[in-house]
Amino acid sequence: MGVVLRTVRAMAPCSRAAVASATGLNKTTVSSLVSDLISRGLVRETGVTPEHRVGRPGVMLDLDDSSMTAIGVEVNVDYLSVVAVDLLTHDLLTRHVPFDARSAGPDECVRQIAATVRETMDGPELSGRTVVGVSLAVPGLIDTATGTVRRAPNLGWVEVPLRDLVRALLPAPGLPVQVDNDANLGALAEYLTGSFARTPDLVYLTGEVGIGAGLVTGGELLRGAGGFAGEIGHVPLTEEGPACACGRRGCLEALAGIDPILREAVPDRVPDRVLSASDITALVAVAVERATAGDATAVDAFERAGTWLGRGVAMLANVVNPRVVVLGGYFVPMGPWLLPNCRATASANVFAPDAGGSRVELSSLGLSAAARGGAAAMVHALDAGLLPLPAPRVHAG
User: Fold this and answer.
1) Average pLDDT, the chain
2) What is residue 51's predicted lDDT score, i.e. its pLDDT?
3) CB 27 within 8 A of CB 48
4) How far apart are CA 88 and CA 66, in angstroms?
5) In the prediction, which pLDDT does 26 show?
6) Which of 134, 214, 139 is nearest to 168 (CA)?
7) Is the N end or the C end of the chain the one with fewer CB atoms within 10 Å?
8) Model confidence at 57, in pLDDT bands (50, 70, 90)?
């Protein structure tokens, strides 16, 4: 059934005969499978359209974008981001919820995540839709097979079985829940829906308290042997640098993460404590406002961060040679001051001529990239037969 669903997605609008031709299945089998998909709310008939062939025109098929939804939630240090999409991965809902996940601890985070998912499922935007699955994006090392957060330094989490804990608090028994790294899902969102969609070799850098890299090579996520690829934020760039949340010194995110940037950009406004969600939101706005007005302290802080980012980008470009490196999160509003130094430093430190054809750009997806990628990942998992299909709908009469 999955092959028929994937074929309809790729070819729609298309006839049953076209699906049979593309899949190699006989027409009777295709007709039966299509009827099943229609009964489950995954495919719909869109009317009769002539095809360029001899004989009777076929009834055309398309994905049913009215019945299903997938939900993506990003859990970051200072916020939860929620995106719900239909089967065409078009947005149905986008929410940004300030939340101090770092201070709350794992138990309270699990309760807040589950409550946010329940509110989303019960909201008017998803009325009448079946939720095919929920994706959770977390900044850390994730065992995707078990949905366990192995280590998330900026959240203070170690060995948190997030998938099982959240699923136990959701109203639908057996609802598929997946957990993945935020940078991986951000990269997937950029590849599927961003300004550089379908660029087969792409890197996405999260611009948050932490810095992670999602790597797309040949159109596929590069996960590494243990699934932990892309932790560029914890590569030490200088032995004399500041302490990092991971316990080392001089890591990229200790030099160019949002926390050190703000402490240098607006030192008179930063409290002498761990920054809260409301702190970060307010301080980013102040720092950008000051830089726009020409404040030298803010501008210098952004430019220094851009230089460090350029060092990290150069490492990635030398190893995986992406066509584009996309800066996301809070790097986007800081882009006018970050980008020049980032690009110049990267270019100067990439071995291949012309930086190997790599360029550095800003994301158009804002703070919702990872949640958006997670929702899209659930839709594609459904296509691939990795999720249970919704039950056939029962019609009265």
Assistant:
1) 94
2) 54
3) no
4) 10
5) 96
6) 134
7) C
8) low
